[in-house]
């Protein structure tokens, strides 16, 4: 009989060992110790492999979801900003249309007056209560000292005229050069006249001196132009009486008149003057 070589003996021994181990594992498959070992391996595998991979996957998914939420928020904020911008533009245009409608409603009266409608080109922020520039000038027959009215009433006087533009000195300006002749309609059907002299910044009202000190003037009465001493007609609203000053002799000498409501903000005006006779 031929002897086995060393290599053959090693292979046979390895086969026997593997067969033995396989038989033992098969025999012990239902054994409690085998179940414990399998459970331990399951926990180790879950803790070292499955859980970290699952956690990493969930984290990546959460980050991705957050990024999508961020993108959505950015988009929604942009849309809201655009919508607010459109709403602001719409409100602004609607206010301008209402202002124009009121201005056109005033066209019916004062047929004897020259009236030129135009828009406000600029109003300096630093001198907001002093002047504005209009889009009409000599080409539209604008002249100095013509009265400028908003949709609510008088707001200023033409101070300087160029070919296509003109400068307005507002009635609220401390540099108003010309006094404005006014009148107040009384309950008895008569009028009391006076002069608008200046704007009182503390009271936020015009100071008006009356010619007749014996009349009774009450708060809430309207003050209008008298048409005397200026290049503009009578009947243009100046404001409303808000206070009266009574002297020591119980005589009313000065009243204070609140300006028209939109004197701080207007976009369109009418420039009113007297028509020249042919």
Automatic annotation (TrEMBL):
Transmembrane segments: none annotated. Keywords: Cell shape. InterPro entries: Cell/Rod_1, Cell/Rod_MreC_2, MreC, MreC_beta-barrel_core. GO terms for biological process: regulation of cell shape. Involved in formation and maintenance of cell shape. Belongs to the MreC family. This is Cell shape-determining protein MreC. It comes from Dubosiella newyorkensis.
